[in-house]
Every structure is written in C-alpha cells, then in structure tokens.
C-alpha cells in the first residue's frame, strides 16, 4: 500500500484529501503544520508528501528544505498545494526540489492522477 502524508492546516482540504486517497488505497498520514510533518517523517517514509506553503509554526518551504536534507526521505515525491499562486512562489517551490506545484483551488480528481503519475514515474525511472 502506498503511503501519503498530507500537510495542510485547512480542515476541509485535509478531510477531502484523506477520504479520497484512502478510497484510492493509500495509507494516509496527516500533519497540520510543518513541524508536525517533520515529526511524522521521523517514523514514516511516505511515497508522496502533499505540502501546503502557508502554515503556522514551520511553513511549507522550510519544511521542504528539512525534508531534502534527510537522506532517508530522498525518494519522497513532494507536491506543493498552495493558494500562493505568484510566479515567484511557484519558482521557489520548484527550485527547493518539489516535484509539482499545484495552485488552490484545485481538482481532487486531477491531484490524485498527478500523485499516481509521480509514483509511477518513481518506480520506473533510472537513477
């Protein structure tokens, strides 16, 4: 079973993503901010991390910087999911190492497809 970590402080988004990914046979972990995500990542190695940018405590950009420093998490695919839709925010997210940057509002169906594509790429790519 594939694992996904959803990091967002908006309960409606978290609930709908959790429901949808569980329906698609994912084991789902939830964090409400970057620090909680980093704590979960000490014990879990998800295939994909969906990461909001604007969160209390540790924001998404700082969270991704920490993730990229951890050798164990190198294989994790990261998707930013954010209302920050300025070109400079998107560029920053991608330059920090995110695989995708999806702007809110978003299509859950399309997001699930993008996650599946990322996982599929990861299993068939050469190092």
TrEMBL record:
Provide the protein name. Answer: Response regulator
Asked if the Swiss-Prot or TrEMBL record annotates the protein with the keyword Heme, the reply is no
Looking at the record's lineage, which domain of life comes first? Answer: Bacteria
A Pfam family that the UniProt record links to this protein: Response_reg
The record's listing under SUPFAM superfamilies reads: CheY-like
What InterPro entries does the annotation carry? Answer: Bact_response_regulator, CheY-like_superfamily, Sig_transdc_resp-reg_receiver
Question: Any idea which UniProt keywords this protein has?
Answer: Phosphoprotein
Give start and end of each Response regulatory domain: 3-119
Work out whether the entry's keyword set contains Cell membrane. no
Natural source organism: Flavobacterium ranwuense
Residues recorded as bearing 4-aspartylphosphate in the entry? 52
């Amino acid at each position: 079973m594939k694992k996904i970590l959803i990091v967002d402080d908006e309960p409606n988004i978290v609930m709908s993503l959790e429901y949808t990914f569980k329906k698609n046979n994912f084991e789902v972990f939830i964090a409400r901010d970057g620090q909680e995500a980093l704590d979960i990542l000490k014990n879990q190695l998800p295939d994909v991390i969906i990461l909001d940018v604007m969160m209390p405590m540790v924001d998404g950009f700082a969270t991704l910087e920490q993730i990229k420093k951890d050798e164990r998490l190198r294989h994790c695919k990261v998707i930013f999911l954010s209302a920050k839709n300025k070109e400079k925010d998107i560029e920053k997210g991608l330059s920090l190492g995110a695989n995708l940057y999806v702007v809110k509002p978003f299509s859950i169906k399309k997001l699930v497809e993008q996650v599946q594509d990322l996982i599929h790429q990861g299993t068939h790519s050469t190092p």
